[in-house]
Every structure is written in C-alpha cells, then in structure tokens.
Amino acid sequence: MKVNLPDDMREIFEEFLVEADEILEELQNDLVELEQNPEDKELLNKIFRGMHTLKGGAGFLGLTSIVELAHRVEDIFNKLRNDELKVTPELMDVVFAAVDKLTEAINMLKENEEIPDLDEIKDLLEKLDAIKEGRLPGESSSNEQSQSGPSQIPEEYKDVVEWILKYPGKTLEEILDELILLPPEERPTEIIEKLDKLISEGKDLKDILPPDLYAKHFGKKEEKKEEQKVEEKKEQTSASTPAPQAASQTTTTALASKTTTAPTSTTSTAPAKKKEEKKKEKKEAEVIRIDVERVETLMNLVGELVLDRNRIVKLVSELEKEFRDHEIIEQLSETVTSMDRTVSDLQVAVMKLRMQPVKRVFSKFPRIVRDLARKLGKKVQLIIEGEDTEIDRSILEKIEEPLIHLVRNALDHGIEPPEERVKKGKPEVGTIRLFAYHEGDHIVIGICDDGRGIDVEKVKEKAIRKGLITPEQAAQMSDKEALELIFMPGFSTKDQASEISGRGVGMDVVMTTVHSFRGTVEIESEPGKGTCIYMKLPLTVAIIRTLMVGINKSIFAIPLHSVVEIVQYDPKAIKGVGKFKSFMLREDVLPLFTLNELFEVPDSKDKEYIIVVRVGERNIAIAVEDLFGEEEIVIKPLGELLKDIPGIAGATITGDGKVVLIVDVNSLVNDIKHKLIGVM
Amino acid sequence: MGEMHVVGVKELEKMQAVSDEIQVVAFRLNDELIGTHIEKVVEITKNKDITPVPKAPKFVIGVMNLRGKIVPVVTLKEKLGLKDTSDYEGKELRIVIVDTDLGEIGIVVDEIVGALRINKEDIQPPPLNAIGIDTAYIKGVVQLDTDLLVLLDIDAIFNKEEEDKKKK
Predict the structure, then answer these.
(1) Using one digit for the tens of pLDDT, what is the confidence trace for A582-627?
(2) Buried b vs exposed e over A376-399: b needs ≥16 C-beta within 10 Å?
(3) pLDDT confidence of residue B64
(4) Cβ neighbours around A517 below 10 Å, total
(5) Residues of B whose CB is below 8 A from A599
(6) Shortest alpha-carbon distance between residue B44 and chain A (Å)
(7) CA–CA separation, A245 vs A101, rounded Å?
(8) Contacts of B158 in chain A (CB under 8 A)
(9) Cα angle B138, B144, B150; round to 5
(10) Which one of A30, A672, B8, B96 is most buried, counting C-beta atoms within 10 A?
(11) Of A217 and A486, which is predicted with more confidence?
C-alpha cells in the first residue's frame, strides 16, 4: 500500500522513521532480555512506552497497518505489566514476529514509501489478538500444507519436497540453511545433498514444486516474496538494517503451549520515565545527521590533501638542501611543519567521523543467538564485551556477515546439547562471548565458545579426503597450521552433515572478507574446552602506513601491518632446500623468496634486505634490492581492468607524483602457495 | 607534463544537431590511421612515468597518474593484430585517454593526427581482412584523400563481459 504524504508532513515523516528505527532496534534486545527476566517491570514499561510512541507517530501519519500492529503489541504489554498475562516463549515468538513485521514495514517505508496491506498482516493480527486474550493462537499453517499430498511430483524429488513443505514461504537456499542448522541427529543428510545439488544446478522452487503446491508454499504473496528477496539481497550487501524475516517467522513457528497468568504487584516507574525523556532530548540537540556520501567526499578530499602535504614536505626538504640557511626557506619550513600537524589532526578528525561503535552490529546478536538456540534445542548465554569500541563504518558493515557465520558455527558445531554438556561435567548453559577491543592501531573482534573445540586430527583427515593436502603434509603440520585448514576454500561447504565436530560453514568467506580490508584471522581451539576466533582489523581503510622497497628500478609499498621485521641480507644464513630457499633467522627457518621472483621481475643487482612478513600463521622472508623507508599512503584502486592482479592491493601516488603499487602480501604468497604446502 | 584538451562534448552536441557529421580523434598505430569517436576521448596527454604492473596482461604497459587518479595504460597493437616492436620503458609516450566500461584507460599511440570531421554517410563497413586489423573491434572505415581511416569500437575492446570471459 502506497503512502501519500503531503509535503508539509515530510519532515515529521523523516523524524518518525528515525525514531521508529531507534525504538525497534532497542526493542529487539529488550525483548531478548525480557525472556530472561520476565518479571522486570522496568523493562515491560519501557517496551510498552516504545510501542505507544510508535503507535502515536504512525497514527498521526495515517499508517494504518503499523498502528494496528503496534496497538496490539502495546495492549499485550499493558496486560503483561499489569500481570494479566505472563511471558511465555510462545507469546514472545508472536511478539517477535510482530516486531519483525514492524521493522519490515519501516524499511518498506524508507525505500518505497509503502506499508504492508492490512490483508497481509491479518494472520499476525489474529495471533496477537489471541495472545492478548490469553488464548492459544490459531493452528499453524504448515501442518495443513504437508497434508496435501505431493501429487505430480517427480519421484526423485519426493523426499525433498516433503522437507520443502515443512518450511513454507522459504526459498531453496533458506531451507538448506534451516536444515543445516538442525541438530546433527535430526539432520537429513541426503536431503541436504540433494538440495545443494539443485541449488548448484540453478534450480528454483518453481522447477521442483507443481504449480498448486508452489502457490501454496508462498501463499498469495508470491510477488511480494520475490520483492522481499531482492530487498534482502540488497540488505545483505549493505548490511545496515536488520533483514526482514517477518513473513517466514510467523508461519514457521509452531505455537503449542499454555499461557498462564500470575499476579504480582506493580511498581510505579513514572519518575524514571521523565528522566529518560529528558536525557533523550538533550542528546538529540547534540547530534546532527549527515549523509554518508558527504563524509566519504570529505574523506577523499582529505586523502588528496595528505598526498599534497607529503609532496610539499618532500619539496621543502629538497629546497633546504639547495638553499641552506636562507631565511625564507626557514620560515617556509616552519609553516610546512605546522601545516603538517594540522593535516594529520584533520585526517584523524575525519577518520573519527567514519567511526562507529561495534554496538551497531553486536546488538543484532542477542536475537540471532536466541532464535538459533531455540531452533537447535541448545541452551546458550551470550556475553557481549566492548560494544563501544569504534571501527571504520565500511569495515563494520562488511564484518556483519562473517560474524553471523561464526556465531552460527559456534552454536551449531561448538556448543553441545544440554544433556551432553551435563554428562561432560560442564554447565548446562553454554557460553558464547562476542567481544571487541583495541590492540595497537588495530581492533580485534572475536568470538569464543566453551563448546566441543576442534579436533585437529579430524580436520587433517578431512583435508586429506578433500584433496587439499597430502598425508605427508598433514604429518608435518603443527596443530595451529592444521586449524588454519578450515579457512581454505573447499574445506567445508559441501558436506555440512558430516560427523566432523569442527566448524566450517563457509569459513573461507570469513577469511576472504577479513583479508579484503587487510585484516587477519586467528583461531585457537582446545578439544573439549572450546574455540576462539579473532579477527584483527585495521581501524581505517583509506590510509595505511607502508614500507617502501625497491627491485629493478620499481618501487613497491608493503603495508606495515604485515611486516614483522627487517634484517640485512646475509648469504650465510641462506640455505637451499630442494628448489626452494630458506632463511635462518635466530631459531627459525623461514621460506625465502625474492620479491623479483614473486613478481616475475628480472633481478638487477644483489639483494640487500630481507623483509619478514606475516601470512596467516607463518612468517615468510622476502628479499628486496632497496629499502626507502616508511611512508603513509592513501590507497587508490587500480580500476576494473587490473583489479584481479594477484599480489597487488592497489596503488598510491607518491610525493613526486609517481604511481607506486601496493603489495598484497597474502594474495601474493597464496598465488604460489600450492607449490609450498609441506615446505612451509 | 603537456596536456592538450580536446573540444568539449557540449559543443559537439550542438554540431551534431545541425549536421550528420561526427568528430573523430585520429592517431597512428604503426602506419595505420586509426580514429575513435571524440565522445569517448577524455583527453590527450604525454607521460614518461608509467609504472609497470607485474603479472598484468601483456597489453598493459603499466599505470599512470592522471591528476590523482590511477589510470592503466595499454597498447592496442597486439589486440588489433598489428606488429608491436616498440620498447615503451622510460620513453615519453603519447597517450589518448578514453572513457570505457572499465573506467578510464590510456591508449599509447605513435602519433596524434588531430580531430577530423567525418560525414556519417561516408562510413563504410569494415572490409574483411583487407587491412590486417581484427574486424571485431572496428566500427567501420572511411576513405580519406590519401588514407583509409579505421574507426575503433572502444566499447567492443574494453567491456566487462570480455573481461569476465577471459577469466573463465
């Protein structure tokens, strides 16, 4: 339903959207918290007020379906805080569904100025009414659908279709996801394989289900669903707003428990309310909202300014050499020094504009963990630490998907079912810790679980079976190297349902994403105790410190974060191992390459320095001909034509206007890695 | 760094409105007279600081700094099936910057001839193999007084699909 807004309402509309966003985001976490503390009156009041505000705003703007939803949720919470109803998982499922629908509606408003039709939310409204009256909500539609026999279904798909019908409204990929997340003993291995094959063949539900079942599967909202799919995709890339999953949520949750009421006394919280509102007003006055694009432009301009500054500093130092002791030069030099400082400050200030607390992403996890734990039948508590740690916006956006991956893995493969935990003498409730902290000029985002841990031998076994390594290589590997195998492309993805207790759902995706902004991933695991994964990320993406090195008249910039140390080239410390060379550094033997051979550039003279770089868990020695020192640079892309050159992360323009290529140590070494496993 | 700017696109539109003429930037690769529609040309420049890119495709000479932007510089000779005997290293190169699907790209040329006006009706379909240039990249030819002008199809040379194909 399209919303028609008169121009004079625009401003109010925009404000409403911002407010609604805030309310709904807080609500997600408040609801999860409420499940744990169902008697928390303060919380109940807060949720009630949030819904009340939302209803009021929507009513003023004539957004009927939002009003209807918010109104019912408000009523439910009114009853809850007056002890006329009691918090139950079933009640919460419906409330969550309503909140999801509201979020979806707000997102629709933002994008197309549309809200869901009343028809579309009728079922949900009825369920809410039922809950409100203390009744059980109506039958779940999934039963009905699985009863309608698979009529004209090809024999080979029959079992698949049975499973598909258990998840109405979902796409093949979503169903596969659901199945993978089932507890191992309930997981239909064959079906997963078949589904996987269908998806890889590019098949759609349309190809598998007969038309009548297909229509039923998606209800009457087939088109809407498609639209939503597109929206969801978009959201996955931008990853800034919670994905609307409301439609599927409402239909899949089976509701089947009693709702009881238990009276307790109500406490007045009116003064608290006042205080909170006052605080909010004050905060609003101090914050202005700026289009991200403007900040990006500013960032680019500052980047250019930094380059010019470098150029001027270089020129001045040359002038100083030429006209020493000249008074004007001295003054110029002073001015430039002062400008240098200002530009650095400016750079930091603009960088800070782009920084956002990781809270923005972390705050989605209580809900994700709750839903997954419920689905998997596991008991988990989520501990979040350091959510105020700030990181560059663009990194924050991209880190969300990998984090969800990691959390899912921890829940699915890491945390054991309650009975198993009790048997092992562990607390029944598993713990997942999600944390962020600063470490030097990096920020570490990580996740730890106290689950099974990863069995190194099983990982090796699987890697051998998959043909990723040879048994000889496996025998030489350290445990840490073996753990790294799970990040290799092709390690997991296909046979989710295997007996391996390790993780692995698209772990290579995690690795690739983190590498794409020059971060690293580390993994620690102890069988029986749990697993930790740390993602070490740069604070910012645009400006990096590099080491300038030279080979054969060319200069390359190696990002400083991957440099471990620099040593003089010493022929005595170099040994040949087969066709590879290695470099003895104190106690360690490091594989040695010249930058020339890595880049296929002819040698022009003897090597003078060795740069020790870190690639994953290993140190590698790279010999270079010249060393020009450190420089702060602005990364510029090489453009579409050259974007996939291995070993090159981009380019920068130096003080004298020349282009210098930036080395991507990871992809450079990965490019020759297949020759190296076993050697390294 | 000598830069020579060419007629702006706006003026060009005005001209097209009144006649069927198009303007072409003409240059030479070896002895061939080659032209490209002026709309595609961003600027014509000279540069001797080209940074070679290791492991890049052979036709990529390197990258250059075009007012703070990184622009790849390529030679089209091999692509078009012409002999390429030049040594590009350290020389000052004449470069025509064109706007393509893959962003701005610099094409190294042997000589800049200048801007020519051509009547659309004079453009002939490319003769098969007659000129030794791969016809896949050619829009047509125009017979001038002394020379045959070959009109390049920049979009056919640089486009995303071609790039993707190569990767597979």
Answers:
(1) 888 888 888 888 898 888 888 888 888 999 998 877 789 999 999 9
(2) bebbbebebebbebbbbbbbbbbb
(3) 92
(4) 15
(5) 54-55
(6) 18
(7) 8
(8) 641
(9) 15
(10) B96
(11) A486
Instruction: Point out which residues pair with B44 in neighbouring strands.
Output: B4, B96
Residues A444/A358, Cβ–Cβ less than 8 Å: no
pLDDT value at position A675? 61
Residue type, position B15, single letter: M
3-class SS string, A247-306 = HHHHHHCCCCCCCCCCCCCCCCCHHHHHHHHHHHHHHHHHCCCCCHHHHHHHHHHHHHHH
Which residues of chain B approach chain A closer than 8 Å at the C-beta? 49, 51-56, 60, 62-65, 68-72, 74, 101-105, 158, 160, 163, 167
| pLDDT tens profile A302-360 | 877 887 888 888 888 888 888 877 888 888 888 988 998 898 888 878 878 888 889 88
Rg for chain B, CA atoms, rounded: 16
A651 in contact with B, Cβ within 8 Å: yes
Task: Note whether B49 contacts A554, CB cutoff 8 Å.
Answer: no
The answer to whether A307 contacts chain B (CB < 8 Å) is yes
Task: Point out the residues of A that are catalytic.
Answer: 52, 74, 409
CA separation for the pair B125, A283 (Å, rounded): 69
Instruction: List beta partners, residue A563.
Output: A613
The minimum CA-CA distance between A662 and chain B, rounded to whole Å, is: 11
Q: Which contacts (CB < 8 Å, 24+ apart) does range A67-70 have?
A: A68/A118, A68/A121, A68/A125, A69/A98, A69/A101, A69/A102, A69/A105, A69/A121, A69/A124, A69/A125, A69/A128, A70/A102
Chain B residues near residue A646 by CB distance under 8 angstroms? 55
pLDDT of residue A625: 92
Closest CB from A599, A641, A660 relative to B72: A641
Q: Give the count of beta carbons closer than 10 Å to the beta carbon of residue A13.
A: 17
Q: Min CA distance, A527 vs chain B (Å)? A: 41
Lowest-pLDDT choice from A548-562, A563-577, B1-15 = B1-15
Determine the residue type at A147.
Answer: Q
Helix (H) or strand (E) segment spanning residue B110: none
In whole angstroms, what is the distance from residue A162 CA to residue A147 CA? 10
User: In B, which residues are within 8 Å of A648 by CB distance?
Assistant: 53-55
Reference A429, options A450, A453, A452; nearest CA is A450
